[in-house]
Amino acid sequence: MLHDVTDATRRFIGLLDADQREHAMRSVTDDDLRHRWGYAPGIRPGLVLGDLRRDQRKAVHGMLATVLSPHTYTQAAAVMALEDVLDHREGGHRDRHSGDYWTILFGTPDGDEPWGWRIEGHHLSVNVLVADGRVSATPFFLGANPARVTYRGRVVGQPLLFEEELARELLDRMDPTARRLAVVSDLTPHDIRSSDSPRVNPSEPVGVTPAQLSKPAGELLLDIVRFYLDRLRHELADEEFARIDQERLHFSWEGSLRRGEGHYYRVQGPELLIEYDNTFNEANHIHTVWRRHCGDFGDDLLAAHCDASRHTVALGAAQNG
Questions:
Q1: Residue 126: closest CA among 136, 140, 106
Q2: Is 82 exposed, middle or buried (0-12, 13-18, 19+ CB in 10 A)?
Q3: What pLDDT score does 320 carry?
Q4: What residues are paired with 67 via a beta bridge?
Q5: What's the pLDDT score for residue 309?
Q6: 154: Cα within 13 Å, side-chain hemisphere
Q7: Cβ 189 vs Cβ 254: under 8 Å
Q8: What are the pLDDT digits (tens) for 234-270?
Q9: Which domain of life does the UniProt lineage start with (predicted)?
Q10: Per residue, what are the HEC states of the chain?
């Protein structure tokens, strides 16, 4: 899997001319830029898909597809395509386009130093860092506007369908006591609470825990967590899932339980934050994010790499002394 990510990144770099490389490539030590992410529409640093040649655009998609699971790559492609749908709905006054997604590279996949990239635009942000053979890919944001397109009451398109349906199924499986613990407010937050902050500030966990759920409901809570982690290819998702402290998870719901009305949920653990929000545009505009408190942007991998490098240097100095 790492071989695929590395080869896809090298392929993209090899297609760039000197000017494009200057715009696309930054140092992996530029922490301010690496941590400056977002999911609102707007111009980003790097290269925009709409200005790239066809083979270069395909190479960017190739990078994305080597990290994402097949079903999530489909979701991401649908999210990007929705920019044209949204632009048409708005009468074109905000000049949106499905080519308005940017790629920026941090370092290069040559040698032993860490490297990574970000592919980002409206409702999509995938942040990848590779260090010492390990891959990190959070923050991972997917959104959709419109979240659901229908014809005569039947769904034509709904790229984030299961993000909503799994949580509703979990609520349905809860007994009345567990549901009272899970639904912590009748009101919804304005957006996902973590927003596009560079750091997640852990808040006091609220809601219901696995110990307070029946076995079927507890299993479904884990299924929800696994579903978000399965946004990545199975090798990466397996690693992430193994790190979850399952007994310390909390699930909470805010807002209405009725379909078509604003709602929000959060799954929180010691090193896990999943947020889902559907409040804008008459509850037809979804934001979702998966984050890791200490591991976003691969900061945990970078710290381990730096520690190992210092240890190697110190060991070498001691042996030569």
A1: 140
A2: buried
A3: 61
A4: none
A5: 78
A6: 3
A7: yes
A8: 999 999 999 999 999 999 999 999 999 999 999 999 9
A9: Bacteria
A10: CHHHHHHHHHHHHHCCCHHHHHHHEECCCCHHHHCCCCCCCCCCCCEEHHHCCHHHHHHHHHHHHHHECHHHHHHHHHHHHHHHHHHHHCCCCCCCCCCCEEEEEECCCCCCCCEEEEEEECCEEEEEEEECCEEECCCEEEEECCCCEEECCEEEECCCHHHHHHHHHHHHHCCHHHHHHHEEECCCCCCCCCCCCCCCCCCCCCCECHHHCCHHHHHHHHHHHHHHHCCECHHHHHHHHHCCCHHHCEEEEEECCCCCCCEEEEEEECCEEEEEEECHHHHCCEEEEEECCCCHHHHHHHHHHHHHHHHHHHHHHHHHC
Q: How far is CA 304 from CA 86, 293, 295, in A?
A: 43, 16, 11
Per-residue model confidence (pLDDT) at position 202: 76
Residue from 103, 20, 109 nearest 58 by CA: 103
Q: Give the per-residue pLDDT at 316.
A: 54
* Contact criterion met (CB below 8 Å) for 122 and 44: no
Which tokens in the block code for residue 306?
């730096």
Residue 272 dihedral angles phi and psi, to the nearest 5°: -145, 135
Query: What pLDDT, on the 0 to 100 scale, is given for residue 312?
Result: 55
Asked if the peptide bond before residue 139 counts as cis, ω within 30 degrees of 0, the response is: yes
Interstrand relation of 101-106 and 25-26 (parallel, antiparallel or unpaired): parallel
d(CA 104, CA 26): 8
Q: Which residues have C-beta within 8 Å of that of residue 131, sequence separation ≥ 6?
A: 114, 298, 301, 302, 304, 305
Q: Which amino acid is at 46?
A: G
Q: Residue 208's beta-bridge partner residues?
A: 251
Beta strand 286-291 with 263-269: parallel, antiparallel or unpaired?
unpaired
